[in-house]
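User:
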Amino acid sequence: ISPNDSWGRSSDGDPSWTVFSLPTPMMSNLSTEIVQDLQMNNSLAIYPNPVTDNAIFKIWLEKPGKVTVEIIDGMGNVVSMFEEKHNIPGEIRVAWNCTNMHGESVDGGLYFCRIHAGNSLWTGKMIIH
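Assistant: Predicted structure:
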């Protein structure tokens, strides 16, 4: 089985599951690829992107600790900042509800996120609708 394989059922009505060597049409094996990429490349995944009302940031945390998230608008202003404590290393997910520090919804546009954890720093960009 390779990372491009997917599980599914054939269209002939057979109820058994099978491995397909081509990805499922209109779908990807994204979650597997993200985990491998996060761990191997110390990267950040943001989804969905474009964001409508909630963004999820995925990172690979080497050791337990505090995670600080900053959301920065296109002008360089920090519009939101929050911290979370994570007690288990590995893949973590941090959610942001697209609000500023006053609890108001942010305007649509280009935003950046900066995430600090220990000695690690991740940055990414996202579009808010």
